[in-house]
Each structure stands twice: as C-alpha cells, then as structure tokens.
Amino acid sequence: METIARIRREHAKGKSIRAIARSLKVSRETVTKYLRSGETAPRYERQHQPLPKLAGFQEELERLITENERRPARDRLDYLGLFGRLKDAGFQGGYDTVRRYIKRFKQRQPPSGPVNAYVPLTFAPAEAYQFDWAEEWIILDGVTTKVQVAHARLCHSRMPFVAVYPRQTQEQPC
Fold it and tell me: Which residues form the HTH IS21-type domain (predicted)?
C-alpha cells in the first residue's frame, strides 16, 4: 500500500516511470499498472489454479465432501479430516490445496436446506403500536393505592406513552 502511494506521489512531482521504477526497485510494468488503476492496495488473484496432484483425486474428494454434508452435524469431518481420508486414498499433495478446493467446491454448490433470512420490520407512522397493562402501587394523598398503568409504544418511532388509571375497565380518552 505504501509503495502505491509513493509511486503516485513521485509521478505527481513529475518523475518519469523509469526513474520511479529504479528508485523503488520495481518493474516499469508494475509502476504503470498502479498509475493506471484506481487501486490503493495491491491485489493478486490467480486466473487459473492448476491442480497437478489433485487432478486424479477430484472426484473422490467431491464424493467425500457430499457424503460428509449428509452426515449429522456432530459426525461431520472438518477439512483436516477430509484431507486425512484423501491421504488414505493415496493423495500425495498438501493440505492447503485440499482446503482451497473444498472451499471453492462448497461455494459452487447451491444451498441444500432452507436459508435463514433476516427481514427487518418497518412500519409507517401510526400504522402499528404495542400495548400492555401493568399494576403499580403509588402513594396518592398519603394513601397507598394500586393503579393500572397503560403502556403503549409506537412501532415506527419507538416513542413510549404511559397513562395511569384506577382500573383497566375505564375508557381511555382519545
């Protein structure tokens, strides 16, 4: 990230691409790439992942993954367990290759069960409210009295309203 910022600062001062490449010890193609792109951080993504050791075991690994997904959650193997099963089948490659392949394979598969979704509730003003009664004891003119408290909360603004009544059967004024 610092390299990209330095390349842009030096270029803004009027320094040539060749001079920038020489001073920062990077290739001219790298300097040109960072000047043309709007990137602020270097990013590398491999276009094609060769799998020389895994190529003969892809079908076996995919079978292990799908079989593993059908098991109950407590009996499922993690990536290391799947890697161990593949090693038992004769695989000579490394764990990272298997881990990356499993991750990409799972991303390509459609979800097998229901997908949990969160739908936020939104309300228009005065569309809905929540209401409840509560009993409270108060001192009214020196006498301890039980009263009924009406609690209402508007769903749109979350604004609370509280009113005190001697009993719940009394009509509330509008």
Answer: 2-65
